[in-house]
Amino acid sequence: MMFRIVFYALVSLNCAGPLCLAQTGEGRLKITLSCGDFSDQCILVFKKVGGEVVRDRDALKIGEGYISVAILGVKQQHFSILEQPALKGDTDYGLFVKGFPSEHYQLRIEGMDVILQDKLEKPLLFVPSSGAAYHFSMDIHVDSNPEECRFTLHFEPSEKRKMSFINQDKVLTVYPNPWKEKLTIRFKESPQRDFDVLIRDLAGSLVWNRHFNYAPDLNEFILDCGKQSQGIYFLQVLDALQQPVSETIKLIHE
Question: What's the pLDDT tens digit per position in 198-247?
Fold first, then answer.
């Protein structure tokens, strides 16, 4: 029996400030979904053309195979090609994805500088305009909650991507140290993006980690690290691009 799985991704094109597409707001984003011998593709195009003229070139998706990927229109139509006016501000697009249970899916994105986030697995992947591939799995559990957006694609100006997570002068403190139960991380300034906290033991094994969503005006976070053995540990904070925010912090658990 062949199961079909459907879920939606939210494509968030974050365009405040100067745009990365030659600073014109124009570009062509190609998304290819593949698994084994099966593949499907959709394209999102931004042009400096009047809205109605652009939309005349849209291509509604005709039929669907074993796997399918499509851009969602305003009325939830499935588009294999969707042409829109040049980007001028924040814009959201839904991404319809369908397939059968497998651990061997690949989502290849190319044509525009974007950041891909998989909310289920937590990693973030910077995708240059030259393209990159993300490997993931789909299972029957996805079908039970098709409205939840698993993927998010962020389009940002190059200047914003180069900005520091927060100012790098003594960015954070962790206390108490030594610790017994819970730890507190206090940032000098409120983080401006999501971030991850990782704790490893002396052997380098990951013993605890947690993803924190962006929370405006919040600069203190409590870590309930569970039961750990006495000894030395190392704490690391990674920003939304999985880059270290500060030097690794040595901790002692009593």
Answer: 999 988 889 999 988 888 889 899 999 888 899 999 999 988 777 788 88
CA distance readout (Å), 147 to 51, 118, 143, 170, 241 = 28, 15, 9, 41, 26
Report the CATH number that the domain containing residue 191 is assigned in CATH: 2.60.40.3080
Could you tell me if 34 and 151 lie in one domain?
yes
Q: How many domains does the chain have?
A: 2
Q: How far is CA 161 from CA 87, 131, 178, in A?
A: 18, 17, 36
Question: pTM of the entire structure?
Answer: 0.56
